[in-house]
């Protein structure tokens, strides 16, 4: 095109097109006609609540709670050990604070007949219980004014009898009417005794 034919006042015909006729409504909402970009509040809310492809893909739809994360199974590994520990503690507590052995009867038996010179008497004490586990605390007393140190006898479950021995040795000539006494101090105070004779010369 030659410069002489160019005019600043010449514009393409598309610059002079008149207004277009009324466009067809985008949608009909009740009795309200929606044209173009105009948005009502209700339509805006619906648009906000309309899930996008990204929301559907990631599971973040509006109004739905976020997905729960899978729980770790790691703490379950310690459950058996915890159960065993609790069982052991319960058993120890029951043994320490549970029902204790109960003494039902105590008897002492001394040797029959006379004990000769420089002899040793084997005195037997028999303690009968109810068979529960526990510990007997006891001591022996002798008629010569002596007594043993505190002694202990442990009873297991099902054991209903404890046999306790006292060895009493005599020396030298003389005669002595001996008395051996068994004293149970716990769990229930009980006492039993028997006599025998030592004679030498």
Automatic annotation (TrEMBL):
InterPro entries: Ig-like_dom (IPR007110)
Domain Ig-like: 99-201
Membrane-traversing stretches: 76-94
Entry keyword Transmembrane helix: yes
Domain of life per record: Bacteria
Keywords for this protein: Membrane, Transmembrane, Transmembrane helix
Region (Disordered): 1-26, 54-73
Identification of the protein by name: Ig-like domain-containing protein
């Amino acid at each position: 095109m030659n410069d002489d034919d160019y005019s600043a006042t010449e514009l393409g015909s598309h610059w002079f097109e008149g207004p277009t006729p009324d466009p067809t409504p985008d949608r009909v909402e009740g009795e309200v006609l929606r044209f173009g970009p105009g948005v009502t509040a209700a339509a805006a809310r619906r648009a906000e609540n309309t899930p996008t492809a990204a929301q559907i893909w990631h599971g973040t739809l509006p109004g739905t709670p976020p997905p729960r994360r899978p729980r770790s199974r790691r703490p379950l590994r310690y459950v058996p050990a915890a159960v065993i520990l609790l069982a052991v503690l319960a058993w120890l507590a029951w043994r320490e604070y549970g029902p204790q052995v109960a003494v039902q009867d105590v008897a002492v038996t001394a040797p029959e007949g006379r004990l000769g010179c420089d002899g040793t008497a084997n005195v037997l004490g028999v303690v009968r219980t109810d068979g529960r586990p526990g510990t007997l605390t006891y001591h022996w007393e002798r008629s010569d004014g002596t007594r043993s140190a505190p002694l202990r006898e442990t009873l297991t479950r099902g054991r209903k009898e404890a046999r306790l021995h006292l060895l009493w040795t005599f020396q030298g000539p003389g005669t002595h009417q001996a008395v051996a006494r068994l004293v149970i101090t716990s769990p229930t105070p009980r006492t039993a005794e028997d006599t025998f004779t030592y004679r030498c010369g």
